[in-house]
Design a protein that fits this description.
CATH class: Alpha Beta
Mean pLDDT: 92
Shape: globular
Number of helices: 9
Order of helices and strands: EHHEHEEHEEEEEHEEEHEEHHEHE
Low-confidence stretches: none
Largest sheet: 8 strands, mixed
Distance between the termini: 29 Å
CATH topology: Carbamate kinase
């Protein structure tokens, strides 16, 4: 099998022009098959405020009403996506910006969730992934076209959905692991998973499922990192070769094992 790197960059990278440029330089130098998934950043929130569209969060997750869906689609699948594509084209990388709705890439369903009290929560037009069109991605990669994927999906019945970019990256990685030796990289502004969120030197270099469970029980993992790690372990369980978490601009060092946190198989 050929190697494939699926790399997700978070909103903090997208929001910082200098960090984004440093990451794209590193991404450009990475040889072989690669796919870039990007988050939304704060631009959608700023635009919503400008337009007078109130934003609501539950447990840190954005409620996506109809007006918010229009805003995130414009920002994520429009301006941000094309900005990244244009910068890659300027570096001689033939990138193609797409969302999950394009080419029937990612079909999803509207989320139905309950909170810890068992109460029903309506997240609005938030989607959870059902299926990935791996043939489309394979065709693009074979043509040396680099997909740049925005976190907007569709339900197959004409409805767009706002979907978490970490989850999209994990879904792509697990689906494509049947065709490629897949490495999933979550790259953001931190050096890796930290024991102390304020200390960049406190990187945990490797985490297996048993160690992760222990860290959570002792509340030693920053709450914002837990969904990312949950996605990482699910990817490993479903056939992804390796998951790495670390600083965006240190991409090659992450791949070489000289930086970041590597998620590995282990006892639960």
């Amino acid at each position: 099998m050929e190697q494939l790197y699926i790399i997700k960059i978070g909103g903090n990278i997208v929001d910082d022009e200098q960090l984004l440029l440093q990451f794209l330089d590193a991404f450009t130098q990475l040889e072989g098959n690669k796919i870039l998934v990007h988050g939304g950043g704060k631009m959608a929130t700023r635009l919503a405020e400008t337009m007078g569209v109130k934003q609501q969060l539950i447990d840190g997750r954005r409620i996506t009403d109809e007006a918010t869906l229009e805003i995130v689609t414009m920002v994520y699948a429009g301006l941000l996506n094309k900005k990244i594509v244009a910068q890659l084209q300027g570096k001689a990388v033939n990138a193609l910006g797409i969302s999950g709705a394009d080419g029937n890439l990612i079909k999803a369903h509207k989320r139905k969730k309950s909170n810890h009290l068992g109460e029903s929560i309506d997240y609005g037009f938030v989607g959870d992934v059902d299926i990935v069109n791996t043939n489309l991605l394979k065709d693009l990669l074979q043509k040396d076209i680099i997909p740049v994927i925005a976190p907007i999906t569709h339900d197959g019945a004409g409805q767009l959905l706002n979907t978490n970019a970490d989850t999209i990256a994990q879904s792509l990685a697990t689906s494509l692991s049947q065709l490629y030796k897949t490495v999933l990289i979550y790259s953001f502004e931190k050096s890796g998973v930290l024991l102390n969120v304020n200390d960049e030197a406190s990187v945990i270099h490797t985490i297996d499922s048993g160690f992760y469970k222990d860290l959570k029980e002792k509340q030693l993992i920053f709450a914002g990192m837990i969904p990312k790690l949950d996605n990482a372990f699910e990817a490993i369980d479903k056939g992804v070769e390796k998951v790495i978490i670390g600083k965006a601009e240190d991409l090659q060092a992450l791949i070489n094992g000289n930086s970041g946190t590597t998620i590995i198989h282990g006892k639960g």
